Amino acid sequence: MAKKSTPKTKSEIMAAIAEAAGITKKQAVAAYEALLAVAYAGAKTEEKGIMLPGLGKLIKRDQARRKTRNPRTGEEKWNPAKKVVKFRLAKAAKDAVLNKVAKAAPKK
């Protein structure tokens, strides 16, 4: 029996979402694009970014001016300050990927 491979392309991912949710591929694409639009807008406008429960947090932050060096010539220069996008993986996602079992809280 052949093991089912994990989806790697966008169309494979959309097909997997559609199959798992019992919807059409077109509906899956629409839902995925809506999720991305909400995430991008939240990261752009919210000061603390946007949390995608079970997946992670998408944030925009300021990166300070920093000194860099060209490894070939050894020339040093300053890169200006800029805004960068960061993604912080949620603990639930990390545990799921690393096959860690969440410990249940002790009952009182």
Give me a quick take on this structure.
This protein is of the alpha+beta class and about 110 residues long.
List the helices and strands and how they pair.
Elements: H1 10-21, H2 25-45, E1 50-52, E2 56-63, E3 66-69, E4 76-79, E5 82-89, H3 91-97
Antiparallel strand pairs: 1-2, 2-5, 3-4
Helix pairs in contact: 1-2
Structure description:
With 108 residues, the protein is α+β, with helices and mostly antiparallel strands. The radius of gyration is 20 Å and the shape is elongated. The strands form 2 sheets. Strands 1-2-5 form a 3-stranded antiparallel beta sheet. The chain contains 3 helices and 5 strands. Helix 1 packs across helix 2. The longest helix is centred in the N-terminal third of the chain and has 21 residues, at 25-45. It has helices at residues 10-21, 25-45, 91-97, and strands at 50-52, 56-63, 66-69, 76-79, 82-89. The mean pLDDT is 87. It has 2 domains: 10-45; 50-103, HU Protein, Chain A (Irregular), CATH 4.10.520.10. A hairpin with a 6-residue loop joins strand 3 and strand 4.
